[in-house]
Design a protein that fits this description.
Helix content: 40-55%
Largest sheet: 9 strands, mixed
Distance between the termini: 56 Å
Shape: globular
Structural class: alpha/beta
Number of domains: 2
Length: about 290
């Protein structure tokens, strides 16, 4: 059944995600801080564009947002022209931003005060996953609200899972980022070792990817790391934002993240080399040329 859906934030993830909603037959209204991006989306997918989050959210059954950080989430959801200013009782706000668990709990409470449902639902799978409709979505919130939205979320996902109460989705995404950063560093060290040992690094990838060392990073980034190509993918700037969230949460819950803290420093060195927009697999450059 088609729904009235608003999508707030048309970045590299939100633009194709909103497109999948339109292709599925939902009536989509979009909002983006850059109005030209909204106009381009409407020209490609139909639907409508709105000048503010509140206007986009008005009369919507479901409001999805995918913005930058906690401050952006707060402004788009609860600001003077934020989504909650326009949402009606019984509708649902879904936040796909990778943000803190604290902002998720804050929005859950703010939404509940207006009889609006809220889910924190960060995604994994990158730009390619968004474009192909094969994201993994980890969700925090009330089970009854989740049951209403699950089918809509599946429009652009291969897996949608309720992880627990408000904030649980964001906490699960933190686990994801902790693991991803460690895998990238391990892959970088292994490939640098292979090349220094005189091996055919691409052949090494082909062989070990069939065994226990296999990973998404190896399958999708191994050969581009060997080729020294990083002008695509998930940016170092974004990973550092995510790791800062992880490290702050660890300080609060007492978890030890020594490797994650070290990798955050490595990514800071990549930024200092002007690589803030390089893919996170660029960690291998620190091994190839440690003195640069």
């Amino acid at each position: 059944m088609p729904h009235r859906v608003a999508f707030l934030g048309l970045g590299v993830m939100g633009y194709p995600m909103a497109g999948h909603l339109a292709k599925a037959g939902h009536h989509v209204t979009v909002y983006n801080r850059n109005a030209a991006k909204s106009a381009a989306w409407v020209a490609e997918h139909g639907g409508a564009a709105a000048p503010t989050p509140a206007d986009a959210a008005r009369d919507a059954d479901f409001v999805m947002m995918c913005v930058g950080n906690d401050d952006d989430v707060r402004a788009v959801a609860t600001g003077a022209s934020g989504a909650l200013r326009g949402m009606r009782a019984g509708s649902v706000l879904v936040d796909h931003t990778t943000a803190s668990a604290q902002i998720a709990r804050e929005l859950h409470a703010a939404a509940a005060a207006q009889d609006v449902g809220f889910l924190d639902a960060p995604v994994s799978g990158g730009q390619a996953g968004a474009q192909n409709g094969k994201l993994t979505i980890m969700v925090g919130g009330d089970a009854a609200v989740y049951a209403r939205v699950e089918g809509v979320l599946a429009t652009y996902a291969r897996a949608v899972t309720l992880m627990g109460e408000a904030g649980a989705g964001q906490l699960t995404k933190m686990v994801n980022q902790i693991c991803v950063a460690s895998v990238v560093q391990g892959l970088a060290e292994g490939l640098d070792f292979a090349m220094r040992a005189g091996l055919d690094a691409e052949r090494v990838i082909d062989v070990i990817s069939k065994g226990a060392a296999q990973s998404w990073q190896m399958e999708n980034r191994g050969k581009t790391m060997v080729a020294d190509k990083f002008d695509f993918g998930f940016a170092v700037d974004w990973m550092r934002k995510d790791l800062a969230i992880c490290l702050a949460e660890a300080r609060a819950n007492g978890a030890a993240l020594p490797v994650t803290a070290l990798l955050d420093q490595f990514y800071a060195r990549i930024q200092a080399r002007g690589g803030g927009r390089w893919d996170t697999s660029s960690l291998i450059r620190l091994l190839r040329d440690p003195g640069a």
